[in-house]
Amino acid sequence: MSGKNKPISSVRIYSQNVGRSYALVDTILESKKLDFEIIFLQEPLWNHIRKAPSTTNPEGDDVIGAPIHPEWLCMVRPTKPNDPRPRTLTYVHRRLLRMRPILRQEWVNHRDIQILGLFNQGNYIHLLNIYSDSSSSAINFLSTNFINIPNVIYMGGDFNCRSPEWDPSATYVPMSAITLTELADSLNLTRSSPTSLSPTHFSSIESHDDSVIDLIFCANNSTSHIIDVNSRLPSDHAPLIMDLPIRPDYINYKKRVLPKDSDEETAFISQVSEHLAALDCSDIRSTSCLDDISNSISRIFHESWNTNSKTVWITNRSKEWWNPHCSETLLTYRRTKDRKDWRAFRAATRAAKRSFFDARIHEIASTNKRPWDLMDWVKQ
């Protein structure tokens, strides 16, 4: 396979709040063109950048926007003259053009939120560039507007949100931090840990502490990022750098399932049986009648499946033994943070594992009598 057509297994991402500095953006575009595929910027410059030839104005028309560079595709929310300026901006290197980069404005049309789609091995994966102001506008927008974004593998930017969970100097947990954590969890993302602890925002006000408000959440919890303090230049925010795996085994996919031996499975079987029994198949005299019966059977199964199945995320961390009781106890612990509830959650997972593996052993030992089927399972 030629290098040009070889599947891309990872992308290198550079994310920074540039504080509306044209010179900084210009420097980033030129200096990072060989080392990065995606640049996510927060608070970019957005003003007059040049004159364009005009048929009505001899001096030319003003071109309002962000810096451009021949090697980077500038992706930004279109604006009208009186619209507020965008506060997020994405550059995709032309090396990624074969991944068909697209901004998903049909899902979110917001100046503080960008959803970048990349076509990867048959599916679009999605990366979110976020700027959330001191009022937590972007965090609140995403948490209050249910937006079904499939295959999200990255969410990063300037969240303007402190918490002892990621900022050692923070003294309390604000509601915005709780909302952000719940938002990431709903997208099945885990907060990335930096390779070394450091503030990401350096305050110019002497009485204000430096803080950690620039964050990355991603689909794989083992992917860390770098806080590149030495490269912040005139900005008061340090850039975040990440090598993000985009192989299929790192990506979360959604599917509908019907858990085995569950109440939902029983309801599905009952509903299908009831509707099939009520189906009149006594007078099939033509091809059209047979087609009608076939379509009715298909509709029965389809509607019963959609009624009783549920949507789950399939990730590289998914466990076959996980059951609803595990989910309930985990949610309780996340809500209370009580050690007693943590012990209850651990007990629930141990019981679920024991039940699952006992059933697996019994099935192999008594049903198919193929003990060697245990080998792959034991090795996991």
Radius of gyration (CA) equals 26 Å
Helix proportion of residues, in percent? 25-40%
How many distinct helices?
8
How far apart, in Å, are the first and last alpha carbons? 31 Å
Structural class: alpha+beta
Order of adjacent strands in the largest pleated sheet: 5-6-2-1-14-13
Query: Mean pLDDT, nearest integer?
Result: 86
Q: What's the main sheet like?
A: 6 strands, mixed
Give the SSE string. Answer: EHEEEEEEEEHEHEEEEEHHEHHH
- Strand fraction equals 15-25%
Low-confidence segments, given as residue ranges, are none
In terms of quaternary structure, the protein is single chain
Total strand segments: 16
Shape: globular
Domain Endonuclease/exonuclease/phosphatase: 129-240
Pfam families: Exo_endo_phos_2
GO molecular function: catalytic activity
InterPro entries: Endo/exonu/phosph_ase_sf (IPR036691), Endo/exonuclease/phosphatase (IPR005135)
Could you describe the 3D structure shown?
One of its GO terms (molecular function) is catalytic activity. The structure is a single chain. By secondary structure, the chain is α+β, with helices and mostly antiparallel strands. It contains 8 helices and 16 strands. The strands form 4 sheets. A 6-stranded mixed β-sheet has the order 5-6-2-1-14-13, with no helix packed on it. A 6-stranded mixed β-sheet has the order 7-8-9-10-12-11, with helices on one face. The protein is globular, with a radius of gyration of 26 Å. The two termini are 31 Å apart. The mean pLDDT is 86.
Give a short synopsis of this structure.
By secondary structure, the protein is an alpha+beta fold. The protein has eight helices and 16 strands.
